[in-house]
Amino acid sequence: MHGRCNLACRYCYLYEGPDHSWRTRPAAAPPEVLERTALRIGEHARAHGTTALSLVLHGGEPLLAGVDTLARFTDLVRDRVPGGCTVHATVQTNATLLTERRLAVLARHSVRVGISLDGGLPEHNTLRTDHAGRPSWPAAARGARLIAERHPQAYAGILTVVDPTTDPVELYESLLALRPPALDLLLPHGNWSTRPPHRGDSGTPYGDWLCAVFDRWWRAGRRETRVRLFEECVALLLGLPAATESLGLAPFDAVVVETDGSIEQVDSLKSCYEGAARTGLDVFRNDFDEALRHPGVAARQAGAASLSARCRACPLLAVCGGGHYAHRYRAGHGFANPSVYCADLQRFIHHVARRLAGAAAAPAVRAAAEGDVP
């Protein structure tokens, strides 16, 4: 929706990473791009008999496009899809621009609000500053509390990138204080050529951090909030269907439309190298079926066949799924590699399996619980 951001987070893979395509694109998606995108979404839903789809209004900071623009576009998509197709719309924001009026507009148009934060305390968010270096926390905290108090039905949850130098339980509990209905805990985007922070050749700092938070979440006695990574790991260990970019073998089913109408693969690939997400397609000349046939997209639809031999031989394959696609990249070798977080993921999955082992008899749980922890 908007290709710029009002913050200058120092770790941002989009603006601080190797891909600089955002600099040559329009700041905001013009009306003709939005109209054509809605048409393409409607065509695709009709052609495939889609009964539900997710529409994520992203950026940059999407609220820079104007809340009325976000609402109009969402309504336009709903008008273009066939009857019986439900559009689940979400805007992902840094929360600094949230106001009562903006939240009321989004809620009225059934657009849920996801918030990106590094934690629930000022000291967790010191890297999230504006372009003048001023802290974003006061405005972001105000926005998060506003939606929790005034529009809880529109609150989608909080997305947080894991920092293993923070106290895991303190950070988790600080986020609980903001009353999110769900949490997404994401590993920082990195790969074998550009190592993530604190990820050396030994140790499992990210896995250890996730295990500590999992135990706090698991032992609470009630579900204080949903944690998607945890719930989907449990589901996969029990042999149930689950789909996330970070775990499992389910085909990934997202595509990005940029502000100029370009159809691209997911933004996370931009953390690998310049042009990694590019397809050469756009909404004016191409439909989404053409994007589905693109080799890069097809590789992410191939399941275990697209993974390295080491991953295919791993007993955790059905649960881990090779990890996040972008985290497998190695310059000169492409994406057919284990995740740079392989040891961390094994540590975490084995740990969850051991917590489940006393209550579940699924073969995947037993195998994972008995496995060696790196």
Short note summarizing the structure:
With 374 residues, this protein is an alpha/beta fold. The chain has helices spanning 13-16, 31-48, 67-80, 100-108, 137-150, 168-176, 205-218, 228-237, 288-292, 295-300, 309-312, 317-320, 342-357, 363-370; strands at residues 52-57, 86-93, 111-116, 155-161, 182-186, 226-227, 256-257, 262-264, 278-282. The chain is globular.
Largest sheet: 6 strands, parallel
Strand content: 5-15%
Order of helices and strands: HHEHEHEHEHEHEHEEEHHHHHH
Q: Which stretches are low in confidence, meaning pLDDT under 50 for 5 or more residues running?
A: none
Ends: how far apart? Answer: 42 Å
Question: Count of DSSP helices?
Answer: 14
Shape: globular
- What order do the strands of the largest sheet run in, or round the barrel if closed? 1-2-3-4-5-6
Radius of gyration: 20 Å
The portion of residues assigned to helices is 25-40%
Average pLDDT works out at: 93
What does this molecule look like?
With about 375 residues, this protein is of the alpha/beta class. The protein is built from 14 helices and nine strands. It has helices spanning about 15, 30-50, 65-80, 100-110, 135-150, 170-175, 205-220, 230-235, 290, 295-300, 310, 315-320, 340-355, 365-370, and strands spanning about 50-55, 85-95, 110-115, 155-160, 180-185, 225, 255, 260-265, 280. The model has no long low-confidence stretch (mean pLDDT about 95).
Provide tags for this entry.
374 residues; alpha/beta; six-stranded parallel β-sheet
Task: Describe the protein's topology.
Layout: H1 13-16, H2 31-48, E1 52-57, H3 67-80, E2 86-93, H4 100-108, E3 111-116, H5 137-150, E4 155-161, H6 168-176, E5 182-186, H7 205-218, E6 226-227, H8 228-237, E7 256-257, E8 262-264, E9 278-282, H9 288-292, H10 295-300, H11 309-312, H12 317-320, H13 342-357, H14 363-370
Parallel strand pairs: 1-2, 2-3, 3-4, 4-5, 5-6
Antiparallel strand pairs: 7-8, 8-9
Helix pairs in contact: 2-3, 7-13, 8-13, 13-14
